[in-house]
Design brief:
single chain, D-Maltodextrin-Binding Protein, domain 2, 2 domains, seven-stranded mixed β-sheet
Length: about 450
């Protein structure tokens, strides 16, 4: 499941497995890379097509087109998430793929395994140094290949109601053990009030929490995949949240519903485990609470740790079918690392940039209006983003996410064992890989 468009817009400025031999073998096909100025002079400007969903991206691309007359890029607006991934794969098989595509990180292994994305490592220069290692790994699949340039990211953080924490005598939790204790204390004192909710409709958040705990959901050796969705790290996360739901000390209702918004507005839910784009969502879901929230790093599994996961994010990838891969790679790197381009992405396309310099740059100098009394919001966010753990994606994330929604949805509703739900999710994912023809171990 993707980070939905409404969450990206609400922001207001708004991994990864080692590649298999199969995936590596898929990356080298396609047209030869061209797109140099010399060629352009002889045959006219190189023309590139870019499929993407970020809002107002055409305004950012216009800056490139003005300064690069030899390479002209046209944005074709698309739906996000699985819809775009399916469309790109279908188009590639029919010989009609674009030159560039906005690809969510978890979609990259699927696109590579379907021979859609080109390895642009010979064109990316020193781009790796512009991004946190955990972010960069998501576009390399842990090998020497580079399948995209990171664009935006969603590091996880903890948002809480300052006034209500004071009212109930709570201190901000720095560990998950303290979070659990606070949840129990709060609900005992005020039975109609919850510290947070567990939302079975948001597998991306659960994946980010497992990422923070050190999980690797997909790994590979040679041409063989291993699914680690039910590994010890994820079991720990599932047992933690399942225990809180079973005890009834946190809510078990989905997020992004009228009931959830009401709980945030009236103070019956007083914190939210979310990502950097949360202030925009809070501004639309809980407008009456503006100025009453603060952001801090995510609670840790052990005192003194400093690591986070991520919820959402995308990249700019070049397709195998592009006849101008060098030019496309040049544009992708400019779009996501050039200071002027990234500042425009922040302002016009409502993204939180993946480039580390941009995260502390002038484009993010002002805190979100909803948290205007936390002027260091983006300075703190940049420090948190730098601690993002590597994520581990595989070729069938969409299947795993759908299984999460089904299995954890039933478990949350029934307040039953989350371990069984996790096992079911893992089994579904393994079965699907085998059905697709992948070799699976374990």
């Amino acid at each position: 499941m993707s980070v939905s468009t409404h969450r990206r817009l609400a922001f207001g400025l708004t991994a990864v497995a080692a590649a298999t031999a199969l995936l590596a073998g898929c990356s080298g096909s396609g047209s030869t890379a061209t797109g140099t100025a010399a060629q352009s002079a002889a045959s006219g400007p190189v023309k590139l097509t870019y499929w993407a969903w970020a809002p107002n991206l055409d305004q950012v691309v216009a800056l490139w087109n003005t300064s690069h007359p030899d390479i002209q890029v046209t944005v074709e607006k698309q739906a996000s998430g699985d819809a775009l991934m399916t469309k790109v794969i279908t188009a590639a098989k029919a010989g009609g793929a674009p030159d560039l595509v906005q690809a969510e990180y978890q979609a990259i292994p699927t696109l590579v395994s379907n021979n859609v994305l080109a390895d642009i490592s010979r064109y990316d220069g020193s781009a790796a140094s512009d991004f946190a290692p955990g972010v960069w790994k998501q576009v390399t699949l842990g090998t020497g290949a580079v399948y995209a340039i990171p664009q935006d990211t969603g590091p996880l953080m903890y948002f809480y109601r300052k006034d209500l924490f004071t009212k109930y005598g709570l201190t901000v939790p720095t560990t998950w053990a303290q979070f659990a204790a606070d949840a129990a204390k709060l609900h005992q004192e005020s039975p109609s009030t919850y510290l947070a909710t567990f939302s079975s409709g948001d597998p991306g958040l659960f994946a980010g929490l497992a990422q923070q705990a050190g999980s690797s959901w997909w790994t590979s050796s040679g041409s063989t995949w291993k699914v680690g969705i039910d590994d010890a790290a994820t079991q720990k996360v599932a047992d933690f949240w399942g225990g809180l739901v079973k005890q009834g000390v946190i809510d078990n209702q989905p997020m992004y519903t009228p009931a959830w918004s009401k709980a945030l507005n009236d103070g019956s839910e007083i914190s939210w485990v979310s990502a950097v784009w949360a202030p925009g969502v809070l501004a639309s879901s809980a407008p009456a609470t503006a100025g009453k929230w603060a952001m801090v790093p995510l609670p840790q599994w052990s005192a003194g740790q400093d690591v986070t996961g991520s919820w959402g994010g995308s990249s700019t990838a070049v397709t195998n079918e592009s006849k101008h891969q060098a030019a496309a790679a040049q544009f992708a790197q400019w779009l996501n690392t050039d200071p002027t381009a990234v500042a425009a992405l922040v302002k016009d396309a409502s993204i939180y940039p993946a480039a580390t310099d941009a995260e502390s740059g002038s484009a993010l100098a002002t805190a979100p209006a909803f948290l205007s009394d936390q002027p260091d919001f983006y300075t703190s966010a940049a420090k948190i983003a730098a601690t993002t753990a590597p994520a581990a994606w595989g070729p069938n994330v969409n299947v795993a996410y759908s299984a999460f929604t089904d299995d954890f949805g039933k478990a949350a509703q029934n307040r039953s064992d989350f371990s069984a739900a996790l096992s079911g999710m893992a089994q579904t994912t393994v079965s699907d890989l085998k059905t697709q023809g992948f070799t699976v171990s374990g």
